[in-house]
Specification:
Distance between the termini: 48 Å
Radius of gyration: 22 Å
Structural class: alpha+beta
Order of helices and strands: EEEEEHHEEHHHHHHHHH
Number of domains: 2
Strand order of the largest sheet: 1-4-5-7-6
Strand content: 5-15%
Number of helices: 11
Number of strands: 7
């Protein structure tokens, strides 16, 4: 292994070059992305580990100097693809800038740039985008792409990693459900209906995962329970009666527990 000298956002990395790739530690990534806590990126990874493959991240035993001496500890590290994917979950002001740094600077050191997706790999996303435009009469093609760009904090659609395409497709299909104008409503009525459906889905999510949140932090769960419960009750009154049964079924049978790629394939089979 060999060390390289790289820096971003006043963070001087001590990257590891191994197997023709550059690996950065989670703690250094957290600092570079502007987090105060050094374990922030590790937490991001733990919440989204199903999105990462073994080729993107791993752990290495590294020496850590303490008052009692040097000890060997497991440290999570990420290669360029892993760093790139982390930025899609990082909600900091420099995440987008860091993503470009990964694309434009980091991989030049090893000559293996992060691959942008080809249009053929994004067929399902382009199909979903076309359906979104067709279902929402007042949304242009460019505006629809802007919504996707904004959601994933990108400038060009090819910047979405292949692993995230199912997530993007799922997001667009949610937009279709929320924004489709089947009854000819416009303006405030459409926006209120969209917000009601959003809250109905959030309440469905809470029914699935609320008990787990209570187990982790009972005080936080108690503080937010009424918002989901009462908000969902109000939201259903703004959804057409003939649409409620179908929406209830979709929410209650949604495979929340599956990673996006598996969820995408399952829903498309059905």
């Amino acid at each position: 292994m060999a060390s390289l000298a790289l820096s971003f956002n006043d963070v001087n990395f001590q990257p590891i070059k191994h197997n023709q790739q550059i690996w950065l530690t989670a703690s250094e990534l957290a600092k570079a992305l502007g987090y105060a806590k050094t374990d922030a990126v590790t937490q991001i990874y733990e919440r989204n580990k199903d999105e990462f493959t073994s080729e993107m991240t791993t752990t290495l035993k590294m020496s850590v100097v303490r008052k009692t001496g040097s000890v060997e500890m497991d440290n999570r590290i990420f290669n360029s693809r892993g760093c790139h994917l982390i930025t899609f979950f990082a909600r900091t002001s420099v995440a987008k800038q860091f993503r470009k740094w990964v694309l434009d600077v980091l991989d030049k050191e090893v000559g293996a740039p992060v691959a942008k997706t080809h249009k053929s790999e994004r067929t399902s996303l382009h199909d979903a985008h076309a359906l979104l435009v067709a279902k929402t009469k007042h949304l242009s093609s460019s505006d629809a792409w802007k919504l996707i760009h904004q959601r994933f904090n990108i400038d060009h659609i090819e910047e979405i990693p292949y692993d995230m395409i199912p997530v993007a497709v799922e997001y667009v299909h949610h937009l279709i459900a929320f924004m489709s104008n089947k009854n000819g409503n416009t303006g405030l009525d459409t926006n209120v209906r969209a917000m009601a459906i959003y809250l109905a889905w959030l309440s469905g999510w809470w029914r699935q995962f609320g008990p787990a949140v209570r187990g982790i932090n009972p005080h936080m769960a108690a503080a937010i329970h009424d918002y989901f419960n009462d908000g969902g009750f109000v939201a259903w009154s703004f959804i057409e009666k003939d649409k409620r049964a179908e929406l209830h079924k979709r929410i209650d049978t949604h495979p929340w527990h599956l990673p996006p790629m598996d969820r995408y394939h399952l829903l498309n089979r059905n």
